[in-house]
Amino acid sequence: MFAFIVRRLFMLPLVFFGVTLFIVLLMQVLSPFQRAASYAQTENQARNLDAIIERYGLNDPWYMQYGRWLRQVSQGNLGYSRTSSEPVLTTLRKRFPPTAELAIFAFFPIIGVGIWLGTAAALNRDTLIDQATRVLAIVGWSLPTFVLGIWLLVIFYGGFGILEPGRVSTDFLIEIARGGFKNYTGLLTIDSLLNGRLDIFWDAFKHLILPVITLATVSSAQIMRVMRSSLLDALGQDYVRTARAKGLAERTVNRKHARRNGLIPVITLAGFTLIGLINGVIITETIFNFPGLGQWSAQAAVNLDYAAVLGFAVFTAVIVVIGNLIVDILYGVIDPRIRYD
Amino acid sequence: MASVTAAQTANDNQVPSAFRRWWDSKMMKRFRRNPLALVGAVLLALFLLAGFFAPIISPQPNINCLRSIGVSASTVGDIRNPLKPAFWKLVGAAPLAQSPYYDCYTIPRSSFSPVPQSAAESGTILGTTSGGYDIFYGLIWGIRTAFFIGIAVVGFGLIVGIIVGSIAGYFGGWIDNVLMRLIDVIFAVPGLVVAMVIVTVLGQNIFNVMIALAVVGWAGYARILRGDILQIKEQEYVTGAQALGARGPGIIFKHILPNSVGTLIIIASLDIGSVVLAAAALSFLGLGVPVGFADWGQMVNFARNWLLGPPGNPWAYWFVSFWPGLIIVLFVLAWNLLGDAFRDVLDVRSNS
């Protein structure tokens, strides 16, 4: 197990070098002036690009530039983002908590609804429940994030005027910015509870409803389908028949013997779900004007803000590699038949 | 002579045609039993027909387009007549800036109204967006954009995937190792992020969107093919071929590829739906095509400005987001229904 983890951690530098090398090579398509913008740390430097081209040798061959970029990153300098008018690293730190909050809140409906409906469909195979969840899953799977998000906004924001985009209402936003509201975790729902402000909690929660539905629909539909088929598979196994034969209650057989085994493929799917969530977050945050990493990266891409896009790509690559590692370890814990050596 | 020909014909009649054999194959029988798959196939056929006959179905294209295909005010009816070359020029128009008929993908404007207009107000079929862009025209010509992107990206990805996959699978060793680690790296980065980076750097146009999606897309096919080849390589008939003196590329092309490419092509073609979706997502983020281009993602992006109606009439602009959204959902649904059915059919375990 230990050897496996170490070997998988070797993946991290590989992905890091692969992704950054690819982007740096790709950048050679651009003129030195365009690239210089991604090296500037402050507004003043950004106005004097000639100095930066000279200083960073942007006319040098790519391998020298790549070495220099690596040295710069190792010193904790990811460049300057024109989109957020601050160093990329600062923005990454500032914008990660809202995105994490969104992803955490989306996680529970994805897993919960997916497993619950998938189980219900498999246990009631070929009944009306099964057919209904099957149609639900295919329709949910076919609802692209950007279409669902826009439709939800047209209905609940434009039409009924109940829920609105953003992270929190303007009144509270001003109050939070003024001070007096302590940021403990950066997650607004938790911080508001820690500050004893139920009104802010309720407001932040309301702002999460639509983005979470948008983000969770596709992923939970996928989990529902996998759960159904893997549980059906498990129900047909000999150990389930044995469990029934020795007189166990149907409920116990389903819960303890079939469902636990049926969950294994669902966990392998979690790695894909993570990648899907990152893709989804970019679009969902853009639609709902939610001030997280995804919204910033999309704006940065449209603004040709290279430093920001590069920083975001490196950041997500690291998250995905670590996420997949955790999934693989969990997989080994849950299924003792798996041996990593 | 005549009698021999007759005998041959009679003989041919007994051997079922290739189409017949395909239609009656176990795979197709299973497929035809699945009612949801049939819904998907019918939907897709409708999309194909609507895309092909776009010149007849859609309203009249804009004046630049008409000029480029060489019709004047008096001969404008030719574009709806399949017997005239003007119709075929429109059918063959590609949504690329290099195409002489590129302008035909720019949605004609019925007015310069600053707000969206309903069907009744503007005299169009589904209404217009702000700036008077005809929604119906955009959706119909958007079908062509969608298929063009989907087929081109999947085709290119397949070619690269087959080349890389067969090299990795056949030669093995360090070549295989390097290629597989490269694929691991590609899989470790969310596709949308890579595509965003590529389009940002290369420039925002439809061709670069296709390049970006193909760069992300080939890796999956290469990995599937490599796995297949590793399995097939161990089969006896390959050893037999080697014993008879077959070497290197000959074995790959004659003995290995024909046995695994068929499934791969089905898997890949079912990806057209998700490729179109990814392209639409990129244009939704503003990274694809300019405003007014017949592209679904761009039209949904446009709809973001019209979530709220005028005071007192909150639902006034529903059609701006509803129709483009609906056509995307139907398109993706069609591919997903087909894909679902084919996955059942191709899954060997469920064949028993």
Structure, briefly:
The complex is a heterodimer of chains A (341) and B (352). Chain A is an all-alpha fold and 341 residues long.
Based on the model shown, name its key terms.
heterodimer; A: mainly alpha; 15 helices; B: 352 residues; mainly alpha
Characterization of the model:
The complex is a heterodimer of chains A (341) and B (352). The radius of gyration of chain A is 24 Å and the shape is globular. With 341 residues, chain A is an all-alpha fold. A two-stranded antiparallel sheet of chain A has the order 1-2. In chain A, 77% of the residues lie in helices and 1% in strands. With 352 residues, chain B is an all-alpha fold. Chains A and B meet through helix 1, helix 7, helix 8, helix 13 and helix 14 of A and helix 10, helix 11, helix 15, helix 16 and helix 17 of B.
Strand order of the largest sheet of chain A: 1-2
Shape of chain A: globular
How big is the Rg of chain A? 24 Å
Q: Structural class, judged by helices and strands of chain B?
A: mainly alpha
Count of DSSP-assigned helices of chain A: 15
**DSSP strand count of chain B:** 0
Give a topology summary.
The complex is a heterodimer of chains A (341) and B (352).
Chain A: H1 2-27, H2 32-36, H3 43-47, H4 49-56, H5 62-74, E1 80-81, E2 86-87, H6 88-123, H7 128-141, H8 145-159, H9 170-178, H10 188-194, H11 198-235, H12 238-245, H13 250-287, H14 293-302, H15 306-334
Helix pairs in contact in A: 1-15, 6-7, 6-11, 6-13, 7-11, 8-11, 8-13, 10-11, 11-13, 12-13, 13-14, 13-15, 14-15
Chain B: H1 2-14, H2 18-24, H3 26-33, H4 35-52, H5 54-57, H6 63-69, H7 85-91, H8 119-122, H9 135-171, H10 173-188, H11 191-202, H12 206-233, H13 236-243, H14 248-269, H15 272-284, H16 296-303, H17 318-346
Helix pairs in contact in B: 3-17, 4-9, 4-17, 9-10, 9-12, 9-14, 9-15, 10-12, 11-12, 12-14, 12-15, 15-16, 15-17, 16-17
